[in-house]
Design goal:
The structure holds two protein chains of two kinds.
Chain A (H helix, E strand, L loop, with lengths): L3 E9 L5 E10 L4 E5 L6 H9 L6 E6 L2 E2 L10 E4 L11 H11 L4 H14 L15 H13 L5 E5 L7 H18 L2 E6 L2 H7 L2 E6 L2 E6 L1 H6 L4 H6 L6 E9 L4 E5 L2 E4 L2 H5 L11 E6 L4 E3 L11 E5 L2 E4 L4 E7 L6 H5 L16 E7 L10 E6 L5 E3 L10
Parallel strand pairs in A: 3-8, 3-9, 6-7, 7-8
Antiparallel strand pairs in A: 1-2, 1-4, 4-5, 9-10, 11-12, 11-14, 12-13, 14-21, 15-20, 16-20, 17-18, 18-19
Chain B lengths: L1 H13 L1 H6 L13 H8 L1 H25 L3 H6 L14 H7 L8 H32 L5 H10 L9 H10 L1 E4 L6 E5 L8 H24 L4 H9 L4 H12 L1 H16 L3 H6 L7 H8 L7 H22 L15
Antiparallel strand pairs in B: 1-2
Helix pairs in contact in B: 1-13, 4-16, 6-16, 7-10, 7-13, 8-10, 10-13, 13-16, 15-16
Classes of the chains: A alpha+beta, B mainly alpha.
């Protein structure tokens, strides 16, 4: 067990592609750190550099107090769980789990003991004599975990270990891995593109985009105060509504205007963000989480200047809540199109009237109907503000 | 027999990934692998053609088998198919070719010669080939790809071209006199390889290696990268990865290639005849002598032919099952 430190780490591929740029991360002893980001953001590359499977172009990597830049993976004393498990197909489950111990010349009886203990922890005791080919996906995943936990290494590295499991198993294993890690207290770096995994499992979450570290913080802090517009849009599902707006009014009665709508802004928003004072009369990017909107027929008594009157375009009823899509004539902040690639691309397409869809998460008791007008109470103390040019959060 | 069966072997060698994708269903000899080809061949007409070809292909071998058990006079007076009309059975031909008493051919001795040549040469070429395949696939070193291209290029060097230089090497080593001086550099000393079985091993290994490396590299480089990386993280160096992972996982490719190399070296005449020396010549070279100087003993040739065929057949059937075994099942998702 040890801390893992990345100091100004860069990865440049021979073809010139700069996969990781000046990455600084300090992962404390026993911490569970999740690396998250859209595909191609460099999170797997970063993990593979910690494992020693990729060379480090520049910068320093320390595990414990040892500089390990040029240390072969076999000498780093780390355990890794791969996305596709990478089990040794010709060995039994017991041999798979005990392989590292055998190579470390641990006495046979001790290997047997530790393998059996790990298997019991992972509910694999019945499978020890089977080959990986005879196991289900979930069991293979457990064997891959077993191979890691049997060793008591300095650090666990996990590269999207749950992405090949079906949804139900994934939720179950998510909890099991998190519990296991807490019990063992081994420093863990966990790579995922699934923000639910990131939020639920990590002590801290590091968000990456195109090789640049965006923000490292606890899941709640990431959610509550994103450093920039990318983190704001990436963390949270459905995503935060981000639109181009203008800050108006006075310091005593600030307002925010987007499209044809103008809403009052709670004064507390300004007092915690002194820097916002200089943006009066200027363009800002305003962010509003879907759950900070509520149907006015459910939350009655809100003042007029805090209600957004819109027409419902689509309703997704999830039982516990309703996801309500509504068009507004305000242009969304278009960073999402540029920053996501491939599967993650979110392209804002205006409807026939040139309006863009935004999302609210309202109570299931909402009386809203598709195509009808609905008033949405805005929690005006929960606005997020970002600079439209830099994309950074406006705070102090 | 060999051509019809080895087509499958070739498929397995060249496309290990494709053959692994095929479910664990046992592929019988003669059963096609490609789906469109498979559909065409499983039609009644296609089936008839396949069986027709199979019969056509087997008839000469069968004729030799029948001839080998006919008495000398019968062989020399009528065709082998007459055996069905007037069957007469004798083991005299086999007795004579296998007997070591003077005047007989003592084929058993040459059979053992062939074995002494073939087994080590196969082990050397496949073994060194697998090591090279691992290096070309999974070790990072400068000029790796160019070196591989060069090795593959060697496939085009005909064996005959190297006979004289090799013979010179084996009978005197390699020396180089610097032009304009009398100073001679010895590049390779004389190792007393004249008329020795080691010379045959070396020649077969050297000329077999490019093919072995090419085939095995295709297979070894298609093994999942993660398995090797997982082993590295588990504490394995190159030697461990090679012996604990590459060797066991490459068994299907090793088996197929072993059959190829075995057939090739066992059936070789030229290298054995030239380098081995009279006492060490393989069974193939002996076969040419069996018929006698005027061809008077050609009834013995059939029996000799059958004897020399036994081992390649045994090797083929012993290793055949490895071709179709999906050894990688369950290692990675899929």
């Amino acid at each position: 067990m040890a801390e893992v430190v990345l100091d100004q780490v860069n990865k440049v591929y021979p073809n010139g592609f700069h996969a990781i740029v000046d990455l600084n991360l300090e992962i404390a002893d026993g911490e569970f750190l999740v690396l998250v980001g859209p595909s191609g953001c460099g999170k797997s590359t970063a993990l593979r550099m910690v494992a020693g499977l990729e060379d480090i172009s520049s910068g320093e990597l320390r595990i414990g107090d040892r500089l390990v830049n040029d240390v072969h993976p076999k000498d780093r004393d780390i355990a890794m769980v791969f996305q596709n498990y990478a089990l040794y197909p010709h060995m039994t489950v017991a041999e798979n789990i005990g392989f590292a111990l055998k190579l470390a010349k641990v006495p046979k009886e001790e290997i047997n003991d530790r393998v059996r203990k790990a298997a019991a922890t992972l509910d694999l005791a019945e499978q020890l004599d089977r080959k990986p080919g005879q196991l289900s996906g979930g069991q293979r995943q457990r064997v891959a975990m077993g191979r890691a936990i049997v060793r008591q290494p300095k650090a666990f590295l996990m590269d999207e270990p749950l992405s090949n499991l079906d949804a139900k198993l994934r939720v179950q294993m998510r909890a099991e891995i998190a519990t296991l890690q807490r019990d063992l207290g081994v420093t863990t770096v966990y790579v995922t593109h699934d923000q639910v995994e990131a939020m639920t499992m990590g002590d801290r979450v590091a968000v990456l985009k195109r090789g640049y570290l965006q923000q490292v913080d606890t899941p709640q802090n990431l959610y509550d105060s994103p450093d920039n517009v990318f983190v704001a849009g990436f963390i949270g599902s459905p995503s935060m509504n981000l639109m181009n707006a203008t800050l108006g009014g006075t310091a005593d009665a600030p307002t925010i205007t987007f499209g044809s709508h103008t809403l009052a802004v709670d004064r507390s928003v300004l007092s915690v963000r002194p820097a916002l004072a200089s943006y009066f009369g200027q363009r800002v990017v305003v962010g509003l989480r879907p759950e900070d909107l509520e149907d006015a027929s459910v939350q009655t008594g809100a003042p007029e200047d805090r209600i957004l009157v819109v027409r419902t375009a689509l309703m997704e009823s999830l039982g516990s809540e309703i996801i309500l899509h509504f068009p507004v004539d305000a242009e969304p902040y278009s960073i999402m199109e540029a920053e996501f690639e491939g599967d993650d691309a979110i392209t804002a397409v205006p409807n026939d009237e040139g309006h863009f869809n935004y999302v609210a998460r309202v109570s299931p008791r909402s009386a809203a109907r598709i195509g009808e007008t609905v008033g949405l109470v805005v929690d005006t103390g929960r606005f997020h503000f970002f600079d439209p040019t830099s994309g950074l959060a406006i705070r102090d | 027999m060999s051509t019809a069966d080895t087509t499958i072997v070739a498929d397995d060698l060249v496309a290990p990934a494709a053959s692994r994708a095929i479910p664990k269903k046992k592929v019988k000899a003669g059963e096609p692998m490609g789906t469109s080809v498979g559909a065409a061949l499983s039609s009644p007409l296609g089936r008839a053609m396949v069986y027709g070809l199979m019969v056509l292909w087997t008839v000469p071998t069968f004729g030799i088998l029948v001839s080998s058990i006919r008495p000398e006079t019968d062989v020399k007076t009528s065709g082998w198919w007459n055996w069905f009309v007037s069957p007469a059975f004798t083991t005299d031909n086999y007795k004579r070719v296998l007997s070591s008493s003077p005047g007989n051919d003592n084929l058993w001795h040459f059979f053992l010669n062939s074995l002494q040549i073939t087994v080590p040469a196969v082990i050397l070429s496949v073994g060194i080939g697998l090591l090279a395949a691992y290096a070309f696939s999974w070790m990072k070193f400068k000029g790796r790809d160019w070196l591989f291209v060069a090795v593959v290029g060697l496939l085009m060097v005909p064996l005959q071209m190297a006979l004289i230089p090799l013979l010179q090497l084996f009978t005197g080593g390699a020396h180089f006199t610097i032009p304009g001086t009398t100073f001679t550099l010895t590049l390779i000393p004389y190792f007393h390889l004249k008329s020795s079985i080691y010379a045959v091993w070396i020649a077969h290994t050297c000329f077999g290696l490019p093919f072995c490396i090419f085939i095995l590299k295709n297979f070894v480089s298609s093994l999942p990268r993660e398995i090797i990386e997982a082993a590295q993280v588990d504490g394995a160096g190159h030697a461990t990865v090679f012996f604990r992972l590459i060797v066991p996982l490459s068994v299907p490719a090793i088996a197929s290639l072993t059959i190829f190399q075995f057939m090739y070296i066992w059936n070789d005449y030229l290298i054995g005849k030239i380098f081995a020396g009279t006492a060490n010549i393989p069974v193939t070279a002996k076969l040419a002598e069996v018929t006698g100087t005027r061809g008077q003993s050609w009834h013995l040739l059939t029996a000799s032919g059958m004897v020399s065929m036994v081992l390649p057949l045994a090797v083929f059937f012993a290793l055949q099952r490895f071709f179709v075994r999906g050894l990688l099942a369950g290692s990675v998702k899929g």
